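Researcher: Here's a chain I'd like modeled. Treat it as a single chain, no partners, no ligands.
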Amino acid sequence: MHLIQAILMGIVQGLSEFLPISSSAHLVFTSNFYKVFKGIEISVESNQEIFLDIMLHLGTLIAVLIFFRKDIYQIIKALYEGFKTKNFSNPDFKVGMYIILGTIITVVIAYPLNEVAGGLVFKPAIVGLLLVLTGGLLLVSENFAKKCVEKKSVGLKNSVLMAIAQGLAALPGFSRSGLTIATGLLSGMDRTTAARYSFLLSIPIILGASMLYPLVKLDITEVLTYNWTAIVVGTIVSGIVGYVCIKYFLKFVAKFSLAIFGYYCLIVGLFTFIFFMGR
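Model: Modeled as a single isolated chain. Structure tokens:
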């Protein structure tokens, strides 16, 4: 594990976690392109690389926690007061319950896909095709949104559909933010509301994954041998880039179409499929 590799992957994670272009796909692409140019077998992946991937996600989790700290506080407060007083009318209480329900649905769908997702790390060509599908869905959802009256609130139907989309995004190439935001648009939400809820919905899942892997699979004696300078720097970079990305992405979606990201996914997905086809 080299410092430059960790920094590059930190930048990629920070940008792609919140943009609808699939962070997992771009981490797969970055790692495999690096291996090709270094003459390393694509099928080889060290535990250190897996751990770095988890830490990079932790970096972007910290970014979303800091950016949405006021929203998170209001949701937690509403949940506490709602259960205490038995008054469930607060909109923040409802959003909190939707996130809890959405997290359960996500886990139910994503868990069976975990083994398949792990295998796709070594099949960037297939990941490229899944990214093409993400691009197609973004373009379809934008076209649909232009013809519908947008709703600015999160409802039960929206939250369930977005949770299903988030579960399917366990497969690298299916962008978590791309699928959830597109699903939000297709279910009648406006871009800004769909994007904000998508980010909030991601918090329990990223937090759970960041905690579960170290507890279940890490060998402490092996971890001590890792290049911690590279890992820490990469994590910090992913957090900083992620925070900036959230800030400006929300401003972008409030004014502009997501079609540009759809075309980006189509182009990068096709290029990656062609480049890695047969490797």
